[in-house]
Amino acid sequence: MFKNEEMEINLGPQHPSTHGVLRVKLRLDGETITHCKPVIGYLHRGVEKICENQTFFQGQVWTDRMDYCSAVANNLGWAEANEKLFGITVPRRAQYIRTLLNEFNRLASHLIWLATHALDIGAMTVFLYAFREREDILDMNEAFCGSRLTTTAFRIGGLREDLPPGFEKMARKFLAKFPTCLEEYENLLSENRIWKKRTVGVAMLSAEDAIALGVTGPVLRAAGVPYDIRKAFPYAAYAEMDFEVPTQTAADTYARYLVRMAEMRQSARIIQQCLDGLPEGPVMAKIPKILKPEVNEVYHATEAPKGEIGYYLVGEKGSINPYRFHVRAPGFINLQSLPKMAEGGLIADIVAAIGTLDIVLGEIDR
Amino acid sequence: MPTPTLLQSIAITLIQCVLVVLFVFVVVPLTVFAERKVLGHLQQRLGSTRVASGHIGVTGWMNRGMWKWGRIPVLSYWRGIPGLLADVLKLILKEDIIPAKADKFVFFIAPALSMVSAVVVFAAISFVPGTFFVFPSWFPGLAGLPVSGGIADINVGLLWILGVASVGVYGIVLAGWASNSKYPLLGGLRSAAQMVSYEVPLAISLLAPVVLTGSLNFGEMAQRMATGTSAWGLVPQVFGFLIYLTCGFAETNRLPFDMPEAENELVAGFHTEYSGMKFGFFYLAEYINMTVVSALAAGFFLGGSWLLPFGLQGLANQLLPAGAWIAGPHAIFFVAKIIFLLFTYIWVRGTIPRYRYDQVMSVAWKYLIPLALVNLLLAAFVRCAV
Prior knowledge:
- Chain A is α+β, with helices and mostly antiparallel strands.
- Chain A is built from 15 helices and 8 strands.
- In chain A, a hairpin with a 6-residue loop joins strand 7 and strand 8.
- In chain A, helix 4 runs antiparallel to helix 14.
- Chain A is globular, with a radius of gyration of 21 Å.
């Protein structure tokens, strides 16, 4: 008598909680998701190809525009990949400042994640609180390099300039108040029954699945795998820093929330150490005006806020442009786990799943 | 007092209608404004707490002083008004779009249905028991005639309120269906299930006061609730109030139960395809419904037009000297309670996240309905035993 049909629905590309222009094709049985397929490419600008037509110095500007929430982390990966390619040693002070800014950027990126993730689940207040703190970090970005979002913070071989006067005061002021801000968010969320109901056991991704799919970053660590490139293959000044890699074993949305919150505390710890132990000296290595690569190819991975960001550069002898440039974008690879997380859940769960993956479409589509 | 003729009583009823509608349409924009302000302060938003920071007048003078000391002034209550005005203007001026394949008649009628059912409920709500005011002797035609505190003093007021209020769900379901779009359809389906589910515990929780007082008339019930019940009646009243308030949040589609319009899942739920004043009607209906739910809570549980809630007024009246102003009913208490409950709505919205759809349903059927039934039993026990 009644016809039983599945409904196909497009989540996106214009939708309040797909964090950009992600389109997810859903097949629904009632409100249960039976089939889920992410469709990407709406923000493709050809960053990799563009970089192949620019000099090694110019490429960094494009890395800003990939994951625009963590531009500094992208810059760091680019600068270090190039330094590896040309065999440049960066002065110690520059390494410390890079670490410092990178961790500030991790805080900013995690705050955006917290804000949007909480908003997706309906907690509006956390959204505005988190943006309030992010504002201070952006102010520091502005003080350092004049730009708030697309920073182009570093140069191959070090930094363009030393920290501006007053920067340390700003940073210390921020560090002094940040723990109370974190407590403020946690008071609103951590033990909130509704928050737990919406996140505990939702969008599970086991360690085996995560490893098989190549997922990295907090999503992997929430499944119990303590893989953090800052510890596993230290770069910048991370070898000299004392910090922990927070992990959880539950592998659900709540575990990822706990991991990221703990990571923010560790980042604050690293920033504190950078500020206290900041060595004196130059911030720029001696490098030639025109860079021509010696080695053929290089792959350099760093721990971006969203996971492993890897830069693969192929140099051509005698050329001032990279022959081939490829980015292993964490968001792109993490997004592949979305069907695994969302299928079998409800519509509301896919919103939580997208939020917990912490994707930025600029980086996925490049 | 003279008995009014038919024409005079019609005139009086019309005046009452105008007064109530006036009340509603004054309270609703104020609630919208309050929502901006309260949320603005809860969430430290800059627009609603800083825009038009007032450089003229007394507050302007204070604000300028505070800027001078290097403090951000938060004093002016009117700050944020430009945002509200812009919002209203936008609603009125916006193009009214009807989707190409929508059912035009149903699409048109749905917002009206929501709105009308929300306003009509007020007919049975009495703001003050007995006479509200008497027309002064200079008033043409109606001199010396009393105006009662409610429009329709009907015996089955509660039935009327519940019956009319439940028509409002049709507005939402029909809007979702008539839009011929997938997100509104999902929103409409959700709201059908949710509002029907929550009407059950809502009605049962309202039955507790009915059992305690033995009346379905709004004014009479409020009066007996405030002064006539025994001290043991306190327990079912407090529990009933909490259950009622929870259901009220669900009935008005407010956080944490805003399933039908869950912004981050269903774009805007049932009103995704609506624009202009048609959307404005849904928006207004939501706020009027909030006022209705608050008014009912105030009348049935919080002592209505008396000062103290949960039947404690009777206790206070024994201690107070006879004829004290505070011992009698006043419309201002009633309105103050409504305003407090409206504030609670906004407060909750600023604090907690949203339930998932299946969890919303399980809250209603697994917890609220059994609790409401137990509460009703308790009320019946109190009524018989004490």
